[in-house]
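Q: Give me the 3D complex with D-malate.
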Amino acid sequence: MLTFVDTPARTAAPSPNDTLVLLHAFPLNGHMWEEQRGFADRGWHVIAPHFSGFGGSDLVSETPSMDDYADAVIELLRELRVERAVLGGLSMGGYASLTIMRRAPELVRGLILADARSEADSLEGREGRSKMLALAREEGAEAVAQAMLPNLLGKTTRAKRARVVEYVHGMIRGTPPETIASAIYALLSRVDAADVLPQIAVPTLIIVGEEDTITPPAMSQSMKQAIANAELVTIEAAGHLSNLEQPQRFNDALAAFLDHRV
Ligand code: MLT
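A: Here is the predicted complex, encoded as structure tokens.
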């Protein structure tokens, strides 16, 4: 079973369907949702799984697919007897969320896509992945952290929020290189999810950091246009890791969505 950061609802008689599942970005882990665990005080059972090999979990496969990542979450929800959860993911977690919407949409009653996109990798993107794969294998997690941090975090965070920079740096540094390599395989081999967007029938919140250069705001705008019941919130002074860089603004958007739309 997928391991996860577990924050049970801190209210009387919680319902299994008040489950908020948050899927992490690459190459982080479920602890990236630390600032969202407080939703337990509002009656949500907050579950932040670690994909295979992340967060100290066992590496199940060296060559997983995005379908494998999605299926592990689907299996977890079934094991926990959750009938319909609110599902959210940031970037790689968003790709996995869209894959779950393709494979088991009946398990989802609200969707959050943060700093994500539906497109598969471009040729240039695939070349970049190959270089990152070589870097992970030859030089390890610290080299990956050095290469990725300037893109993962927005310019405001890099200039003003040293604690966030160090937190993200530590999470990447602590990830085994073989786990990083396996996730690059899943990212590289994922299929385009544009066909899933018009099939999404649940309320959807799309969030993007205004300084996100990996999945820039235009990508979120085009997902919003393709999903019938979607709203888009742009987070000021945040880059790609919007939930970590501006947790209060991110949580305000999430709270409004959970209180009024699902
Ligand atoms: C992530 O944050 O999960 C990655 O940047 C996703 C990607 O590289 O496409």
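A quick observation: The chain is about 45% helix and 15% strand.
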